[in-house]
Amino acid sequence: MSRLARLRGTALVLPGVAWLVLFFVVPLAIIFVVSLGQRGALDRIDLSSPNLDNYARAFDPIFLPTFLNSLRYAAITTILSLAIGYPIAYWISRYGGRRKALLLILVMLPFWTSYLIRTYSWMIILRDNGVLNSLLQAVGLTHEPLILMNTDVSVILGMTYGFLPFAILPMFVSIDRLDSNLLAVGRDLYASGRGVFLHVTLPLTMPGIIAASLLTFIPAIGDFVTPDLLGGPQTTTIAKNIQELFLEGRDWPYGAALGFILMIVTLGGTLVALRTLRREVVGS
Amino acid sequence: MSRERNPLLTAFAIAVYAFLFAPVVVLIVFSFNSAKRGLAWKGFTLDWYPTLLSNDELLDALGVTLQVALVAVLLSTVLGSLLGLGLARIRFRGRAATETLLLVPMVTPEIVMGLSLLLFFLQLFDGRGSVAQLWVAHITFCISYVAVVVRARAANMNPALEEAARDLGASAWGAFRYVTLPLIAPAVLAGALLAFSLSIDDYVVTTFNAGVGSSTLPLYIYSKVKFGVTPEINAISTIVVAGTALAILAAWRLGAFRSEGRTVIDDDEGKPPR
Amino acid sequence: MTDRYDGSTIDLEKELVRYMVERKLSRRELLERIAAVGSAAALAPIIAACTTGGAASSSGASASAAAPSSAAPATASPSPTPVPSPEAELFIYNWTDYLAEDVIKSFEAKYKTKVTQSFFSNTDEAYAKLGDDGGGYDLSFPISVDVPSFIEKGAIVKLDKSLLPNIKNLGTEWANPGYDPGNTYSVPYMWWTTGVGYDSAKITDEPTSSKALWDPRWAKHISMLDDFQEVFGLALIQLGHSANTDDTGELDEALALLKEQKPLVRTYSTDTITTMTSEDVWIGHIWGADRFAIQEINENVLYYIPEEGGVKGSDTIAVFSGAPHPIAAHLFINHILDAENSATNTNLIYYMGPNAAAKEFIDPAILEDPTINPDQKIVDKLEELLNLEPALRDEYLKRWQELRA
Asked: Are A169 and B2 inside 8 Å of each other by CB?
C-alpha cells in the first residue's frame, strides 16, 4: 500500500483518536492514578504513597458470584439478541424494500422513551397480577400467578429487550450490503437455501454478527440498573458492587481498582474472542 | 434462496416488533392512569398532559436532553464513521492500538467514565458541570458505537471501487461523496440512531457532569423515583415518541430515507416482489 | 425530639478540644468519649477544632485528585456580612417534590430571585458531586448525621442568624441538635422514621415486630430497602444491638440473620412506593413518609415502628462555602422557616418538620398520626443512623455485598 494511502488512513482516524485520547484516555489516567491512592480522612483521596494494594484487595472472593452473574446475564442476553436479531435484520434487509430505513427507525423508536419508564412498564407486564399473568390465566395456561418479577427471567427479558436494537442494527448494515450476485452464485453451488445461508450468507455477514456481539455483550457486562430494577435478591451484578464501593463506601481508589480489573478482564476476553473469530470464521 | 416472502419469517418479525412495542403501549396507556403513582390501573384521565405543560423543570430538562443528544449525535457520527471507515479499510501503523482504544470506552464501567470526566473537568478547567460538559461526555461514549457499526459495514468493502472512481477522474472528495458515502450510509444512519438512543437515556455519566440548569430528562426522572414515578413521566415519554414518530412519518412521506437502504451494488433483490 | 446527643451543657469543652487536637480522635471516638462523660451538647467548639484539622488535611489533599476544590476554604473564616438584598438567582440541589411549588413561587415573587432546582436521586451520588464547596450550588439538604463531616470539610458555612429571624419558630427541642449545636451551620428541615409497611388485606394478624419480615408465610412477598445501613440497622435493632454498632461480632450476627431472611425476600429496593403497591410485596421495610403515597393507591397498607425500636433520621438545610448566591440562600432558608411555608411543605410531603409555629397550619390528620408524630416514648426508642467512620463503613458494606452476592 502506498504511503499516501497510509496517510489517508491516518487522516480518517486521527480526529476520532484525538478526541478519545483527550476526553477519554486523559480522564481515565486521572482515575487510574486515583486507584493507586488510599481513601484518606474525610473520604478524600490520599495519594501520598501510591501502590497497588487496592488491586490486591479487589481480588476478593465476595465479588466472584456477582461477576459470574454479570457474565451469565451478558452471555445469555447476547445469544438471545443475536438469535432474535439476525432474522429480523435479515427480514428488514431482504424484504424491507423502500421501507428499510423506516423499519430500522421503528426498531429504535421504543428506545426514545425513558429507560426507567420502559422498565416500569415491564413491571406492569410481569408482576404477579400483571398483564402477562392475567393473559396466561385467561387462556387457562396457568391457574396461579407465576412469579416472574424479581427473578432471572425478568432480568434476562429486560436486558434482552434493552440490547436487542444494538444487535439488530449492526447485523442489518452487514446483511444489507451482501452482494446479491454472490448469493446467486451460491444458489448455483449449493442447491438448498440452507446451504447458501450457511456457506455464503452467514460467513459474509460475520462482521455484522461480531459487531452485534460487541455492542451487546460488553455493555451488558456493565449493566446494573436492569438487574437492580427488575431483579431480586439473587441478581446482583459486579457493576453494582463497583457503584457501591464508589458511592456508598465512598472509597474511590478501591472502586476504581475494581473497575479497572473488570475493564482489563472484559477487554482481554473481547480481544482474544475477536482475534479468534476473525481468524476462524472470516479468514484472512 | 426463495425470492418469495417467507411467511414464517414475516410472522416472526411481527412478533418481535410486538415485543419491542409492548412496553411502549403499556407506557402510553398508563399516561392516562388516574392513579398518581404505582403499577396498578385506577381509571382514565387526561389530566397529566396539561399538568405537564406547566412543569417548567420537566420541560427544561427535555430541552437540555434533546440539545445534548443533537450535538452528541452529529459529532459522534462524524468522528465515529471516519474511525470505522479507517479501521475497516486501511492498514496503518497503530491500527491494532486504535482498535483497542475504540473498545475501551465500551468496557469502562459507567461510573468510572462519569467520575473520570468529572475529575478531568474539575482539575483542568474548574468545570462544575454544564451543557458543554455533557456534550463532550456524550460524544465520547457514543463514538465507539458508531465506529463499530460503520466498521461492520465497511469491512470487506472493495477499495477498488473508490480507486476506480479516482482513476475516472473523481477528486478524493468526489470519490468519497459518490462512492464510499452511499455505501456506508445505512451504517451511518444506524450508528446515529444508536447514538441518539444512548444519549437521551444516559443517566450515570450525565449525573456527574450536569450542573446548574443542565439537568436532563433521565436525571429528572430518576430523581422522581424516591417518591414513585408519576404518569406525568409517561405523558412526556408519550409526547416524545408520538412527536418523533410523526416527524419520521412526515419525513418519510416527503421522500427522506427512501433511497438510504440501497447500495451501489444492490440490485432488485432487495425489493419486495410484486 | 430526635437528637441523641442532647444534654445539659457541661464545661468539659476545653478538655475535649485539647483531647481531640492532641490525640487526633476520630469523630466516633469523640462521640464515644462524650457519651462516656455523659454529655453531648459540647460539640460546637470541638467541631471548630476539627475544622482546623480538616483545613490542614485539605491542604495536604489539594494535591490529590479528588479534592474537588483546590481552594478548600477554611470554615473558620468569619462568615460574610451580607446586606439583605438577595442576588438575582438561587441554585438549589434537592430531592424532587421535597419543596412545595408554592413556597418557591412566593419566594421568587417576594425577592425577585429566580430559583433553579437541580435534583438528585440519592445522597451518595449527590455528595460525590458536591465536593468540598458545593459544586456550584447554593444550598442543599444534607442528612443531619452528615452535617459534621460537611462542616469538617469546610463545605458549608456558618449561618448568618441576622438573616434568619424565623429561626425562632423552631421547636425548643431542635435548638441544640447534637450534630450541629446551636444550629450554627445548618437548620433542621424535616424528620422521618423507618419501619415496616404491610398490606392489611393480606396480612391480618397485625404484626408489631420487625420479625414479621422473617415470617415464612409471606415468603417471596417481603421487600427490604436497598440501603445497607437501613437493612443492617433493622437487623441489629431486632437483635438488641445498636443500629450503629462497631462490634464486628454483632455485625456477623446481623449478617447471619439477614442471610436467613434472604430466601424469603422478593426484592431489595428503595422505591417502596412502587414495590408496596405492586401487589407482589405484602410486607416491606419502608421509609415512614412513603406510606402516604402508598395509601393513595392501596389504602390497606399500614405502617408501624417495630416494637424492638426503629430508625429515625432528619434532613437539614445548609449553605455551601462555594455558594454563588449566599444572601439569597439565607433568605430562602428564612422563607422556609416561616410557619405557614413550613406547614405547606409538611402538608405536601407528610414529613414532620421541626417548626413549632407551623403546627396550627398543619393538616390535623398528620399531627394526630402516631406514626408521623409519634409519642415521646416511641421516639426515645428510635436510633439515628450515623455517618460511619470509613473503616467501620467498610465492615458494613463488605457484609452487605456478601449478603447481596
From this structure: no
CA distance B7 to chain C (A): 39
Closest A-chain CA to C154: A42
CA atoms within 13 A on the CB side of C93: 29
Contact B257, A99 (CB under 8 A): no
Q: What is the per-residue pLDDT for C7?
A: 36
- Partner residue opposite B227 with nearest CB, options C65, C97, C136: C97
- For residue A168, the surrounding DSSP H or E stretch is helix A152-175
Task: Provide φ and ψ at C191, rounded to 5°.
Answer: -135, 160
Strands C186-199 and C283-287: antiparallel
Residues of C in contact with A241 (CB under 8 A): 401
Are C382 and C193 contacting, i.e. CB atoms less than 8 angstroms apart? yes
| Nearest-CA distance B247 → chain A (Å) | 12
Query: How many Cβ pairs closer than 8 A exist between chain A and C?
Result: 111
Contact C265, C225 (CB under 8 A): no
List the one residue out of B183, B225, B233, B231 whose CA is nearest residue B58: B233
Are A69 and A81 a contacting pair, CB within 8 Å?
no
| Burial classification of residue A144, based on how many CB atoms lie within 10 Å of its CB (0-12 exposed, 13-18 middle, 19 or more buried) | exposed
Beta-carbon separation of C66 and A45 below 8 A: yes
- Identify the three-state secondary structure at position C265: strand
Contact A47 C265 (CB under 8 A): no
Closest partner CB to A252 (pick from C58, C66, C278)? C66
Q: What residues in C contact A43, CB-CB < 8 Å?
A: 149, 390
- Which chains share 3+ C-beta pairs under 8 angstroms with A? B, C
- DSSP state at residue B179: I
Express each pLDDT in A120-156 by its tens digit. Answer: 999 999 999 999 999 999 999 999 999 999 999 999 9
Instruction: Specify whether the CB–CB gap between C322 and C146 falls below 8 A.
Output: no
In angstroms, what separates the C-alpha of A76 from chain B's closest C-alpha? Answer: 18
B220 and C96: CB-CB below 8 Å? yes
In this structure, the number of other CB atoms found within 10 A of the CB of residue A268 comes to 11
Nearest residue on chain C to B208, judged by CA atoms?
C129
Residues of A in contact with B206 (CB under 8 A): none
Rg (CA), chain B: 22
pLDDT at residue C39, as a whole number: 37
Q: How far is Cα of residue C30 from the mean position of the Cα atoms in its chain?
A: 20
Task: From C193, C226, C192, C195, select the one nearest C122 (Cα to Cα).
Answer: C226
What's the CA gap between C86 and C326, in Å, rounded?
8
Contact (CB<8Å) A204/B156 = yes
Which pLDDT value is given to residue C18? 41
pLDDT in tens, B186-220: 899 999 999 999 999 999 999 999 999 899 999 99
C364-399 pLDDT, tens per residue?
988 888 888 888 888 888 999 988 999 999 999 999
Weakest mean pLDDT among A56-60, A180-184, B148-152, B238-242: A180-184
Instruction: Please check whether residue A135 touches C, CB under 8 A.
Output: no
CB atoms within 10 A of CB C389: 16
H or E element in which residue C93 lies: strand C89-94
**Phi and psi, residue B75, nearest 5°:** -70, -40
What subunits touch chain B, counting only 3 or more CB pairs under 8 A?
A: A, C
Query: A68: how many CB neighbours lie within 10 A of its CB?
Result: 13
Tell me if B82 sits within 8 A of B148, measured CB to CB.
no
